[in-house]
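FORM 7B: Structural annotation worksheet

SECTION A. Query
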Amino acid sequence: MNEITLLAKSGLGWQGIGGIILLLTGVGLIYFGIKALQGYRFFPEQEYNIPEEDHYEPTQAKALQKVKTTMPDFNGGEDRVFTEWKIGYTIDGEKYTQIVTDNGYEKGDMIDIKYNPENPQEFYLDDEKSKVEVTEEEKEAEEKEEKTPFGYAAIAIGVLLGVFGVVMLIDKL
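SECTION B. Predicted structure
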C-alpha cells in the first residue's frame, strides 16, 4: 500500500510550511504591536514596591555615614557619582547596618523603616522622603515611553516576517 503523508499531498514541502509559520508569526506580532500602541499592558501593573508587610515591624534607623561611589561613564563623559547612606538600627540588642539611596538625609537623621522580625536584615524604607509622588502626567509619559518602542518594533518585525513568509510561499508555488 502506498501511504502518502498529508505534507506530501499538499505539495507545500518544508519551505511552504516554514512560509506559513513565518506569515502567522508576523500577523501575530503585528496584532500585539497594534495592541501595545493602543495602551494594552502585557504585564499586570504594580503600583507599590512594598513587600507583604503583615508581619513587618516598624522601627527607626540612624543615618550613619554618606557613601559616594564613582563610576566611569563609558560614553566618554564625566564620571558618575552615586550617593548612598549607611544606616544602622538595633533589633533585640543586635546591630544591623544597610546601604540605602540618598533621599536628602543628613548625618544623624532618624529614618523610619519596617523590618522582618524573622530576618531583621530584610527591611524597606517607610519614611516620607522615600515615598515618591508621581503625577498623572508623569505616569502617562512613562506609559507612552514604555509602549511606543515595543509597539513599533513588534509591527516592524511582524511585517518583515510576514513578507518573508509570503515570499517563501510564492517561491514554493
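SECTION C. Observations
The radius of gyration is 28 Å. The longest strand covers residues 57-71.

SECTION D. Sign-off
Analyst initials: ____
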